[in-house]
Design a protein that fits this description.
The chain is an alpha/beta fold and 386 residues long. It is 35% helix and 23% strand. The chain contains 12 helices and 14 strands. The chain has a 9-stranded mixed beta sheet with strand order 13-12-11-10-6-9-8-7-14. It is globular.
Length: 386
């Protein structure tokens, strides 16, 4: 197996997300970490790259320098991960896609809907991947939920309830913490803070599991901490194209909640419940029967869930392993294109540019609805409305 070359932009020292990506790419031996521009300060970027073992020539001081260097390198990277503040995603992703690189971008993919539509068109025209890191879709039992819904175990889906609420930004005295501050700054985060940061994971999971897309929504957004320009709590009602109704709560001021991502799906003949804080169990209630617990790693899981299960039953799996499933799926798609073959169906779970576009459109719809006292807004991107 040829090891693929991987590079990273952002995710430097002190980053929350950088270590998870580096662990995930190393897990299966699919990727070698060979290049990076890990900080917006050139000297710090180069120093941290060297600290992590990058060659001096590939520990870059900025993403433009990395793009130039990798474009000319005889053994250039196969995939670049973008883990920078939201406002920079579009410029970096577009530049690397135009240069022929595949991309994994942290969410949201872009700030504006027009930018996201441009990325979708660019991926189609150039036959490149711009994946978006909805990493929680890498959990095995989330993929099994998707399979159960698709094969009709729940009957017609009636209702989806998804939450992503934590309390880690509840301290008003923490306003100058750089890891917190940028998330509520419109110049860096865009039109939304908490929904764009966490709520969009819950909304993507609702679509990922049900196979339905959000058509319209109504939102109530509030900034609980004085001085924040963007919301730190939102309640969103939505309707999906397959007829399901949705409810979503996201918050960063819910003291006592630690992570808080959970999803429930209720159909005509059964209901499912899963929580990221307890990822090894999926609760399944068939209509008129007793509650059942499906365990990650058991023998009856769907092919996609089975492929994503790394540890034997009873042992814990966590976020880096979920991210690793996204990277392993990406590696399969990149190799399949190189080899002129179809990718394995069991690897067909990568959130792509179209998923990123739908999420950006939903972010803008939530912001618009919140400003209009909960008015119902069309959440579909313009290019998907016809």
């Amino acid at each position: 197996m040829q090891i693929l070359n991987w590079g990273m932009i952002g995710g430097g020292k002190g980053s929350q997300i950088g270590p998870a990506h580096r662990l995930a790419t190393a897990l299966d031996g699919e990727f070698a970490f060979v290049a990076g521009a890990l900080d917006h300060r050139p000297a710090a970027a180069r120093a941290y790259g060297l600290e992590l073992g990058l060659a001096k020539s590939r520990a870059y001081g900025g993403w433009q320098e990395m793009l130039e260097g990798e474009s000319a390198h005889p053994n250039r990277i196969d995939l670049v991960t973008i883990a920078t503040p939201n406002a920079t995603h579009f410029e970096i992703a577009k530049a690397f896609l135009l240069a022929g690189f595949d991309v994994l971008c942290e969410k949201p993919m872009t700030i504006t809907v027009a930018e996201a539509e441009e990325i979708v068109r660019l991926c189609r025209d150039a036959d490149r991947i711009c994946a978006v890191n909805y990493g929680y879709s890498g959990y095995p039992l989330v993929r099994h939920m998707r399979a159960m819904v698709a094969r009709g175990d729940l009957g017609k889906v009636r209702l989806v309830v998804a939450n992503f609420a934590h309390g880690h930004h509840a301290d008003a005295t923490d306003a100058d913490n750089p890891r917190v501050r940028w998330r509520y700054d419109p110049e860096q985060a865009g039109v939304s803070a908490q929904f764009a940061d966490c709520g969009i994971h819950a909304l993507h999971m609702a679509s990922f599991v049900t196979g339905q897309q959000v058509q319209r929504l109504s939102a109530d957004c509030v900034s609980c901490v004085t001085g924040r320009e963007l919301e730190d709590d939102a309640m969103v009602n939505f309707r999906m194209d397959g007829g399901a109704a949705g409810r979503l709560w996201t918050s960063s001021v819910a003291i006592g909640r630690q992570h808080g991502l959970e999803i429930q799906v209720f159909g005509e003949t059964g209901g499912l419940r899963w929580s990221q804080e307890h990822p090894n169990q999926l609760y399944w209630m068939p209509l008129g029967e007793r509650l059942q617990v499906i365990e990650r790693g058991e023998s009856s899981l769907s092919p996609g869930a089975d492929r994503a299960s790394r540890m034997t039953i009873g042992h814990a799996e966590g976020l880096p392993l979920a991210f690793a499933n996204i990277y392993r799926d990406l590696a399969e798609h990149i190799r399949a294109r190189k080899e002129g073959r179809e990718a394995d169906d069991a690897a067909d779970f990568v959130p792509g540019a179209e998923d990123g576009l739908r999420s950006v459109a939903a972010i803008h719809a939530v912001a618009e609805s919140g400003m209009a006292n909960g008015a119902w807004i069309d959440a579909r991107p313009p290019m998907f409305r016809n």
